[in-house]
Structures are given as C-alpha cells and as structure tokens.
Amino acid sequence: MATANKKYRILGLMSGTSLDGLDLALVEFTVGKSWRFSIIASSTQPYTRTWADRLALAHTLPGVDLIAMHSAYGTYLGKQCQLFLRKSKIRSLDAIASHGHTIFHQPDRGFTFQLGDGQAIHAMTGIKVISDFRSLDVLLGGEGAPLVPIGDRLLFASYDVCLNLGGIANLSMEVGRKRKAFDLCFCNMALNYLMKEVGKTFDKGGMLASRGEVDQDLLVDILSAYQEIRKKRKSIGREFFEQAIQPILEGKSIPLVNRLRTVCESVAIEVAGALPASGKNLKLLATGGGALNRFLIQVMQERLEGKARIILPSMEIIAFKEALIFAFLGLLRLRNEINVLSSVTRARRDSCSGTVTG
Q: Tell me: the pLDDT tens digits for 140-156?
C-alpha cells in the first residue's frame, strides 16, 4: 500500500448510451488502509439536439468522417472540462479520466470504440488525460465490459449487489472471492426510445408506464431476445438493441403505455433472475438514471420481495456513480494498479488499462 492518506483529485467524464448528456464528477480520493472518496463538484451537461443527433448517428459515418468526429468530440469534451473547472473554481487537478461515448462495441470481432480523442481533451485543457479504457481488455480476449466492478469492490463494498440502471442495466457482486458482473438487459435505452413517439426524451418518474398494463406477448418476445445473453452473460450494446429489441418495441398496435409498462417488467424480471438464491435479503445499491424512475423501482422491488432490498443512495451518487468510478479507474491507471478484472470480463488476465496523454 502506498503512503497513508495520500490524496488525489480526478475529474471523471461519462457519456452513456441513453444520450441524456455528459456527466462530470470531480472526486477527491484518499488512500490509506482502504479507499475513501468525496465528490467535490458534479454536473450534467445536456447535449444539444445537434450533438445528440451526431452521436446517435456516428456509427453510420464513413471512416474519415468518424475520425474527424473523434477529434471534434474530444475537443468538445475538453471545452466542457474547462467550463466545469472554471465554474467550480478548481485549480488543482491530477488528471481527467474520460470514458468517451461508445460507438461500436464488438468484442467478438476484437474491437470496441469510444468516441472522444483523449489527446484533443489534453490539447484543450493542458491536463493529463486517461482515456480508451476498454480496448486492452478486448485485445486480451475479454468483453471490455463492465468496467465499473473494480470500483464497486473497492468503494462500495458495504453492499451485496451494485445495480446500474443506465441505458443498459448491469450489476456486480462478489461470488466466492471473485467479483462477477454482467450486462442484463436494456433499460433506459428502451424506455427512452419509446418516449420519442411522443416527442419526449424520457418518462419522468415512470408516470406513463404506471398507466399501462403488461402485454404478455410482448413480454415473452423481449425475454426471449435476451435468452442467449442470459446464458453466456455477454456484454451488449447499440448493435444488439437495433437488431433484436428495437423491432419488437415498434409494434405500435400495442398502446405506448403498455409497451413502457412491459419494458419495466422485463427489467425487473432480468434483475430478479440474475440474483443468487442466497436465502437472505441482499442489500442492493441502485444507481443510474433508472433509479430516478419511481415506478420502475416499485416494479423491481415487488419482484425482489424477500430476495433483495433496494437502497437508493444520495442523488449525487445515483447520477454520478459511473463518472465517479471512471475517475477511480483513471487514478488506478496512473498508479499502475489493476483496474480491469478478468473475473468480470473473461479476459486472459487482469489488466491496468487506459491510454495516458500528457
């Protein structure tokens, strides 16, 4: 263990599949006998319609245009860091850790790509940047995801299960002496996709979903689509959503409220099915945008009754846990410590991943 009570300040950046905006969390970490953290400042910068559309369609760009956008989005991230640090009146910073925005995730073909050039962020800010956290694990035969579990283990060890309800729902937990984690299903990505039909970006508090009824045929179709994912616990991304889930959700003969309600039910079923039959009421930490969906949480808790108790932390942790943990991954990279667990990704070995610029 390094010097007791050594402190670091890292700015974590996270852009998720739900495209609701860029999360920024400035975190102070203290290392002693264990890790401690404090979020000094945090903010979500909503994407303009232009940026949201550009990111949503980036996977359709020809190669040279995608490279140009990689640089442009990196410059955008750098500008957002400048504005955030200026507004927060922060002058001292060890590094910026940027997840980027996932455009392609195809580990079975040996690649993953997160948009947002770390060198462009460094050029804008003059601050050391850690980026591209997933590629090394994929090249080591892993899924490149999930990466958050190392943070769950070291920063949130008091919970039995850590559940992230983002665009994609995923969880992590200790099984024996190993950390296990995997993607479960589409959560906000599916709900937000449906809400586009009424010109909205999300269903606030699950109000529309709460008015609907579960459509059993639709539920069977959704659950069937996850059958292979459930068996192999592979990571999932935009490609799988567009191929397998989106066509199912487009059945407009089913009222929108019923489709929303059914998606909520499918998420609850996938979460409940992934938890071990431990015989105790597990402490389950729920974070991510879906944790703010009161109806979704209600449906989940009904499914989990007697199996797990959902715990909602502070609003700051709900909203910024992923940005916080990517800041932590960046710090571990700077310290040349393991930040990706092969027990989670199924790579050939653990790794210390991330490209350092500056």
A: 999 998 899 999 999 99
